[in-house]
Each structure stands twice: as C-alpha cells, then as structure tokens.
Amino acid sequence: MIESLLVANRGEIARRIIRTAKRLGVRAIAVHSEADADLPFVTEADEAVCVGPANPAQSYRNSEAILAAARSTGAQAIHPGYGFLSENADFARTVEASGLIWVGPGADAISAMGDKINARNLMAVAGVPVAPGTTEPATDLAAAIAAAAEIGYPVMVKAAAGGGGMGMAVAADEAALRTEYDKVCSFAERMFGDGSVLIERYFPRVRHVEVQILGLADGRVVALGERECSVQRRNQKLVEESPSPAVSPELRARLLAAAVRAGEAVHYRNAGTVECLLVPRQRDFKGDGSGVDEFFFLEMNTRLQVEHPVTELVYGLDLVEEQLRVAAGLAPAFDPEALTPRGHAIELRINAEDPKRFLPGPGVIKTWVEPTGEGVRVDSGYVAGNTVTPFYDSLMAKLIVSAPTRAEAIERAKAAVDRFELTGPKNNLPFFVELLGNPEFVSGDYDTTIIPRMR
C-alpha cells in the first residue's frame, strides 16, 4: 500500500479521502489555500501545506505549488479528488514524470475522454450508443447551422472541453442557435481555453443515469452498478440515488456492459464514471425500465464522482480505498466476480445556496449539527464557526442515507433532513423537504425537468 498521500483538493472530498487514508495507515498530507486554513480537512491531516491565496488558480489549480508541497513533505502519491486538477492530463503526466504515483486513470485516458467530440467518436467505434451529433467541431456558425439542420432541432450546443454541466445551451431553432453558438464559444474559450463546440440532438425529457466503473490493476474493467442523477438545476446535480428506479434488469445489463466497453476502449485504470441519457418511448417510465427505449453515451468522468457514496453503500465497499489499491498495483478488496448490490441509497447535496433560485449564499456557519442514526452518513467539509467563502463551489456536505428499499430510504432521508441543524449561510435543506414529499419524485417516475416543474 502507498505510505504517504497528498490530497490535492479541499472541503468534504479532501476530508473524506483523508479519512480512508488514515484508516489504512497511510500518512495523509493536505494542501490548502489561505482562505481554507481553518477547515476540518486541514486539521485532520497528518501534515498540511498552504499553497497560495484564495484564488483557485493560485492555489488548488497551481500545479507547481502542489508538486512543491509533495516534494517538501515526502509524499509518495497524489490524489486529486474531483474538480480542480483531477481531469488535467498534463498534470497527471507531470506527477508521474516526477516519480510520484497518480491516484487516477492514465493521462492518455484523461486526454481521450476530455474532449467530448473525441470521446463520442471513440465510444461509437467501441459499440457504445451515442446520440446523433457532430463528429468534428463546428468551427463556425455556418457549420453549426448545417449540422443542426441535419441532426434536427432542438439541439444542444456544448463546449467540447467542458464538464460538470458547464458550457451548454439549448437551441430550439436556427434563430436560437445563432444566439447561443457565440455565447457557448466565448464561455468555452474563457473557462476551458478551448472554444470548440459540438452540436448534438437535444432530448427535452430524459433521465440522466451513470455507471460507476473501476479499472483494476490487472487490466480488467468492472462496473459497480448505476446511479440516477436526474434531479438537477442548471445541468448540475443535486440528488443521486442507486439503483435507478427507471432501470430494469435487462436495461441494467446493457448499460453496464456498455460502460465496461467504454472503459476497455481507453484501457481505463482506477475509478471513473460513464454518464448516459435514457430516452423514453413514452412519458411513463413505470419505475421498471419498461418505458425506456434507448440510452446514449453522454461523457466519461475520469475521476472520482461527488456522488460515489451511494455506490459505496449499495455495494459495501470504499471506492477511495479501491483507488489507492489500483494505484499501488494491488488486487481489489472485493471479489469482482461476486458483486452483490443490496438495498437503496440516496444522496442529497447540501449547498450554501437559496432553496428557490439556487443562487450562492456564503457566510459564517453559526449552527451545524449533523443527523446520525442507522443508515445515515454525512460527508461534510465544514463545522460550526467555519466560513463558507465565495471562492469555491457552494457544496458544504453530502447527506447520504441507505435502507433495504427505496421507500424506506426516502423516509430515512426525510427524517435526516429534519434533524440537520444548519444556520448562517443560505442553504437548500428546505428544497429537499419539498422534493422528498413530491409525488413525482416519490413515484420514481421523474426526469431532468423535475425541478423546473416544481418551480
């Protein structure tokens, strides 16, 4: 096993990685910005290094500062968590060239999946279904209009280099495309340094379902079930659950097999996620997959996902431990031939944002009391007295519940939300009270438009 691990991230994911590292007897090293010096992940690490000011570009995205911290602390490996440098192929290559272990997929896999157009093309060759769309960037508005005419409206205009639901716009007709094309190009250039865009068929009513994969040290790729991620605002997830209430055993078999093919196509190692859209034949999903006609590859996230805990609870494993084992060249701690999911898990992302418009609401945390009890887990990045600053993502904690059935998990989630005491910053706990009592969500028959309809 790796002996010392530098966690190149912050907040709840840094704290969560440190927890597993210490359980395994691995020396855990934190890096932090000046703004995060008082957060729990810093004090809980065996050693901590300040890598710069609050601006992420000068701290958590500062690869030179991260590598300098690794050298000064004698770290053997670097775990990037999610966001920041986690899907930066150049950083992964530099880490390995420096003689350190990169806890993640190889740089070639990150590069291959980092460009949405290239990823789509690779998946099509591998036999993974892809939605109708462009096979090369729409280099100008005329090319975008021609592509949309062939694909058929409505279309999605997407940043080729983007991720996490960023850099997307829907065009219902040519007039809208003329407006949105330039906006997405400009956003993509500003955010990702690459203004390339692709045009893809837009499905107004879909479900967003993803498959957790793990590329083992011996070269095998295994699928660890699916997660339902359709409760979203601005194309970004708020709730995830596993298994998906829309996926039948037959559909699950096809989804998981496609995800494995996707991983094998890029010789994937370590943890990753294959994201898909489920397209219904009819509005009624019936909660058993019978209404789902087809699924399409959306993208592959070459890192650990925010929502990985629901998979951990359903499969009874620790994905961070498995990441470390793969990186160290060790066999998994579970039998890949005897994976048995049990029960149902739901994750709620507790954000510092107002519960109506979902706009950020940072501030000092005055009260923070986490719910406890059977089947309740909280992965948090803060405690009372900490300040949620405007410099980073608004995620404060993840409330995860598990139970033998989905209905029981929903009831457990309701009780846990009610017991979560949080004052100070604006927060979205009231939204979850509303969602968990919403008949559409409770039925399992919902899609990515559920939040707009609730509003």
At a glance:
With 455 residues, this protein is of the alpha+beta class. It has 15 helices and 20 strands. The strands form 5 sheets. Strands 13-12-9-10-11-14-19-17 form an 8-stranded antiparallel beta sheet. A 5-stranded parallel beta sheet has the order 3-2-1-4-5.
Structural description of this entry:
Residues 283-287 have low confidence and may be disordered. The chain is globular and about 60 Å long. The chain starts with a strand and ends with a helix. The protein is of the alpha+beta class and 455 residues long. Helix 12 packs antiparallel against helix 13 (429-436). The strands form five sheets. It has an eight-stranded antiparallel sheet with strand order 13-12-9-10-11-14-19-17. A five-stranded parallel sheet has the order 3-2-1-4-5. It has 15 helices and 20 strands. Strand 9 (207-215) and strand 10 form a beta hairpin. It comes from Micromonospora qiuiae. This is biotin carboxylase. Residues 1-455 form the Biotin carboxylation domain.
